[in-house]
Amino acid sequence: MRNEFRTLGMKILTNGKIEGHEVESLRELICADGKIDREEAEFLLDLYRRTDQIAPAFEKFFCKVIKQHLLADGTIDSERAAWLRRLILVDGKVSEREKKLLREIKGEAKEISLEAHDLIEDCLNWPASPKK
How far is CA 15 from the centre of its chain? Predict the structure, then answer.
C-alpha cells in the first residue's frame, strides 16, 4: 500500500471517525488517476469497517467508489461477485444501505454473471438489519 494511504488511514483511525474534511482528502487520493483499483477499494472498505463515526459525505463517497470499482468495464463477473459477497455478507447481515447499493449496481451494470445475479437477489430478499 502506498505511503499516502497509510498516513491518511492512520490519521483517520486515530480519532475513530471520518469527518467531512477527511472525505475530501480521501477523494483527492483515491480519484487522482481517475480509476479505482482493488487496493483503493479495499483501503476504503477497511476504513469503513474500522471507524466508529462516519460522515454522510463519506458514506456517499464510499458507495460511489465501490460502484465505480465494480462497474469499471460495465460487467460484474464471478470474481467481482465473490468480492462483493465478502463485502456485503462479512457480518452475516444486509442493511438497507447495502440493499440500495446492490439495486444501483444491478441497474447500472451492462452484464451480470449468474453468481452476481444470485448474490444480489439473495441479498435483496434478506431480512433487513441495521448496520453502521
Answer: 21
For residue 64, pLDDT over 60 is answered with yes
State the pTM of this model.
0.85
Residue 7 has pLDDT above 80, yes or no: yes
Instruction: Classify 19 in phi/psi space as left (phi over 0), alpha (psi -120 to 50) or beta.
Output: beta
SS3 51: coil
The tens digit of pLDDT for each residue in 88-107 reads 998 889 988 899 999 999 99
The helix (run of H) or strand (run of E) holding residue 73 is none
Cα–Cα distance, 58 to 65 (Å, whole number): 10
Q: Which positions ≥6 away from 76 have C-beta within 8 Å?
A: 70, 84, 105, 109, 111, 112, 113, 116
59 within 8 A of 20, measured Cβ to Cβ:
no
Name the grid cell of 55: 460522515
